[in-house]
Amino acid sequence: MLHIAVLRLRFHLEGCASLKEKRQRLAGLRDRFGRLPGIAVCESGAQDSLSEAEWSFVAAGGSRQINDRAVAEIEGFVAEAVDARITARDLEFV
User: Fold this and answer.
1) With 0-12 CB in 10 A as exposed, 13-18 as middle and 19+ as buried, what is 50?
2) What is the domain extent for residue 63?
3) What's the pLDDT band for 55 if we cut at 50, 70, 90?
4) What is the pTM of this model?
5) At a CB cut-off of 8 Å and minimum separation 6, what does 39 contact?
6) Alpha helices, DSSP H only, in 1-94?
7) Average pLDDT of the chain to the nearest whole number
8) At what angle are helices 19-33 and 64-81 packed, to 10 degrees?
């Protein structure tokens, strides 16, 4: 059985002056997780806003524990390496 977790994170980017800067500040998300097997990542909302962003991550694995580890890794990376503040978090298991 395939287990799926969907994590949506909404960010506030303080002092962001352009869409190019916004994409640069969040590029590590796609670079880090977009190439991993079992994880899909995309900018899913607020694409035209300079100070807000929404990113979605989908983790697919053979067990909920695998997805829990993937979500923990994503959130750990965001907390340490992303120059933005998380304003909302939504985690759903489907």
Assistant:
1) middle
2) 3-93
3) very high
4) 0.90
5) 33, 57, 58, 59, 60, 70, 74
6) 19-33, 64-81
7) 91
8) 140
What are 51's two structure tokens? 């100070």
Decide if 9 contacts 26 (C-beta within 8 A): no
d(CA 77, CA 62): 23
Rg (CA), the chain: 13
pLDDT value of position 67: 93
pLDDT in tens, 5-23: 999 999 999 999 999 999 8
The CATH number of the domain where 55 resides is what? 3.30.70.1120
